């Protein structure tokens, strides 16, 4: 291994979630160092690192931080810990195994940007993660790392743990803010509601992902330049990927960003160790359920943001889901579409109506009641949600959830149209049916 | 059917004090109500509306958006079987059918004795451990049929006391000692924080 572990360095240490062990393993050193610098110098280090957001969109964090308007106060930090993109499993481990690293990242960010309060939004279903974060916060408050006059300086900030209650859409940053204000988690229109200018309570707000902020202590301690030398030129540092589905060794791995390939991760001895039962790979999802699927010919694409974008998909939330040759593509497609249909917040008609129709049409195909023109109909509905069905997607909706439901359909039909046709050719058409829905 | 009790109210007030605007405490307070009763009753929602000085309709509006809030009684143990894509590929549907047969209920139902509720849920972020499930939001990884049967039996026999009853989430709560609290800036008319001038230069 030629790169240092940045975010997962303490995962093997059993009690790394405690303050004592964290401090013993270089914990809170970065905060101490940051407090000897000016806030602007700290911000510059993160800019130098070219740290890309690790939540899904992959926007550079240092640049996002620079969007805060001058002289508007107070400003807030909101931590997005609502990890729920299918296939994604990294933030929960960061919360459970190394909560202080995240807290330290939050504190440094607040110091650098003059943010006076931080809200740490943890997905409702993650009871254990909430416990670990609560214990860590309690310890850190007692020890003087959080709260009033941190480490005896004039730097003061509160970090508030907030539980979600089960809604994927809340992972979208403006929906997260709505939820934090006590409302239904429905996204806001951008513009004007870019959180950096009009965010929580209408004030400038930085929303960052758990993994993004977990990188910040290392960057401050070792320097942004050193960080930027790891990985490739435009995808710096390391990234955590979860490899799941039909692989011999499913797992969560921190790898060098930009240089490792999908083949390394899926087939590599240190990672996925190849396809289950010696089968062939049929398709894989490269970046969470929202991402268009990749196929065998994409295995040698590097895990590099712009290369994956150009190849027609995205690294999204670092979730690789592998499907082997035994996979029923129509059912897999239905599974992912059902997810978006259930999680649509209902604010925009194309998504609310479109995703549920996509699910129903796929369900009737599986149930043996598909119609000859159903594939055209599916693509027509897709086109109404995301005109042209292009990548990156255009959207007729406020947020990208609707267009995300288009990805599995366009991918599956592009490569495995015959599997849909096989279902339809055997169906009893013209029979009036009730739509069943539910499990497949 | 009840309002928040004295202990819940004490915690509620602590939580409310952490937000610049009271309504932000709505979801945490709904969790408190659910913890107290196992579900969120109309009376509890009305009480929360009183506490936060918002309308009962606003409380219902928020409450009904989020999947974890149950507005009618559910089982003591909520079995949530993940059927996200990774679990789907590794047999989630079979596990769900097995659970239906074992418990004698369909997905979305509660057993007659009020012990178990069964739901197929979307991805719960344990994709490398597929197929997985949660019992009252506690993870069970790589669940086989025998493993599932054993889990159900152990719960029936009262041997899984580490799993709290439905409604309780984290067993550890955040608590901020008063003297350590940085304090909340007013949402309007706040001043730039003084540390911005730290170490000489202005930001």
Overview of the structural elements:
- The complex is a heterodimer of chains A (440) and B (203).
- With 440 residues, chain A is of the alpha/beta class.
- Chain A is 40% helix and 11% strand.
- Chain A contains 16 helices and 8 strands.
- Chain A has helices at 19-24, 29-34, 39-49, 61-65, 91-97, 99-113, 127-142, 173-180, 210-222, 224-228, 262-267, 305-310, 329-343, 349-366, 374-385, 401-425; strands at 76-81, 117-122, 158-163, 205-209, 238-245, 251-256, 281-285, 319-324.
- In chain A, the strands form 2 sheets. In chain A, strands 3-2-1-4 form a 4-stranded parallel beta sheet, sandwiched between helices.
- In chain A, strand 2, helix 7 (127-142) and strand 3 (158-163) form a beta-alpha-beta unit.
- In chain A, helix 13 (329-343) runs antiparallel to helix 14, helix 13 runs antiparallel to helix 16 and helix 14 packs parallel to helix 16 (401-425).
- The mean pLDDT of chain A is 95.
- Chain B is α+β, with helices and mostly antiparallel strands and 203 residues long.
- Chain B has 7 helices and 4 strands, in the order H-H-H-H-E-H-H-E-E-E-H.
- Chain B has helices at 6-16, 26-37, 42-52, 56-63, 85-89, 92-103, 145-156; strands at 77-82, 116-121, 133-135, 138-140.
- A 4-stranded mixed beta sheet of chain B has the order 2-1-3-4, covered by helices on one side.
- In chain B, strand 3 (133-135) and strand 4 (138-140) form a beta hairpin.
- The N and C termini of chain B lie far apart (54 Å).
- The relative contact order of chain B is 0.12.
- The model of chain B has no long low-confidence stretch (mean pLDDT 95).
- The chains are: A alpha/beta (440), B alpha+beta (203).
- Chains A and B meet through helix 7, strand 3, strand 5, strand 8 and helix 13 of A and helix 2, helix 4, helix 5 and helix 6 of B.
């Amino acid at each position: 291994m030629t790169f240092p572990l940045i975010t997962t360095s303490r995962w093997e240490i059993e009690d790394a979630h405690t303050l004592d062990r964290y401090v013993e393993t270089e914990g809170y050193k970065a905060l101490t160092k940051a407090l000897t610098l000016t806030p602007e110098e700290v911000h510059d280090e993160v800019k130098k690192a070219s740290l890309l957001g690790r939540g899904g969109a992959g926007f550079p964090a240092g640049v996002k931080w620079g969007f805060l308007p001058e002289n508007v106060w107070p400003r807030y930090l909101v931590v997005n810990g609502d990890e729920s993109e299918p296939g994604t499993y990294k933030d929960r481990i960061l919360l459970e195994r190394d909560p202080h690293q995240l807290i330290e990242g939050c504190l440094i960010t607040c110091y650098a940007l003059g943010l006076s309060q931080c809200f740490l939004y943890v997905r409702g279903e993650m009871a254990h993660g909430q416990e670990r974060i609560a214990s860590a916060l309690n310890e850190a408050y007692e020890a003087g790392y959080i709260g009033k006059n941190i480490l005896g300086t004039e730097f003061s900030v509160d970090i508030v743990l907030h539980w979600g209650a089960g809604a994927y859409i809340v992972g979208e940053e403006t929906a997260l803010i709505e939820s934090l204000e006590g409302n239904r988690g429905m996204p806001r229109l951008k513009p004007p509601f870019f959180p950096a200018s009009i965010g929580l309570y209408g004030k400038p707000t930085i929303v960052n992902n758990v993994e993004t902020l977990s990188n910040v202590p290392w960057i401050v301690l070792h320097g942004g330049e050193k960080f930027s030398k790891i990985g490739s030129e435009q995808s710096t540092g390391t990234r955590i990927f979860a490899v799941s589905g039909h692989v011999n060794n499913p797992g969560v791995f921190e790898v060098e960003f930009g240089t490792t390939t999908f083949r390394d991760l899926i087939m590599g001895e240190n990672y996925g160790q190849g396809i289950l039962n010696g089968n062939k790979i049929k398709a894989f999802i490269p970046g969470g359920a929202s991402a268009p699927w990749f196929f065998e010919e994409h295995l040698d694409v590097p895990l590099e943001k712009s290369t994956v974008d150009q190849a027609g998909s995205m690294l999204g939330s670092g979730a690789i889901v592998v499907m082997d040759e035994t996979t029923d593509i129509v059912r897999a497609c239905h599974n992912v579409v059902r997810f978006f249909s259930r999680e649509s917040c209902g604010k925009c008609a194309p998504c609310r109506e479109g995703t549920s129709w996509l699910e129903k049409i796929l369900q009737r195909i599986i149930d043996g009641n598909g119609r000859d023109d159903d594939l055209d109909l599916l693509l027509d509905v897709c086109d109404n949600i995301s005109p042209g069905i292009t990548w990156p997607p255009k959207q007729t909706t406020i947020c990208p959830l609707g267009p995300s439901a288009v990805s599995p359909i366009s991918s599956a039909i592009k490569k495995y149209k015959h599997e849909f046709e096989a279902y339809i050719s055997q169906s009893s058409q013209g029979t009036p049916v009730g739509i069943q829905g539910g499990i497949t | 059917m009840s309002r928040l009790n004295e202990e819940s109210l004490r915690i509620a007030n602590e939580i409310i004090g952490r937000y610049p605007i009271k309504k932000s405490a709505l979801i945490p307070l709904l969790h408190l109500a659910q913890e107290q009763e196992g579900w969120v009753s109309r009376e509890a929602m009305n009480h929360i509306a009183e506490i936060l000085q918002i309308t009962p309709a606003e409380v219902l509006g928020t409450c009904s958006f989020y999947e974890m809030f149950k507005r009618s009684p559910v089982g003591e143990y909520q079995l949530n079987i993940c059927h996200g894509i990774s679990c789907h590929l590794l047999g989630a549907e079979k596990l769900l059918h097995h659970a239906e047969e074992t418990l004698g209920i369909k997905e979305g139902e509660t057993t007659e004795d009020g012990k178990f509720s069964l739901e197929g849920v979307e991805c719960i972020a344990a994709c490398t451990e597929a197929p997985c499930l949660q019992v009252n939001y506690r993870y069970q990884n790589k669940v086989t049929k025998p493993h599932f049967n054993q889990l159900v039996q152990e719960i029936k026999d009262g041997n899984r006391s580490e799993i709290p009853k439905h409604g309780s989430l984290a067993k550890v709560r955040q608590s901020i000692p008063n003297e350590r609290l940085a304090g909340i800036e007013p949402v309007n008319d706040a001043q730039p924080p003084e540390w911005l001038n730290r170490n000489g230069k202005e930001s």
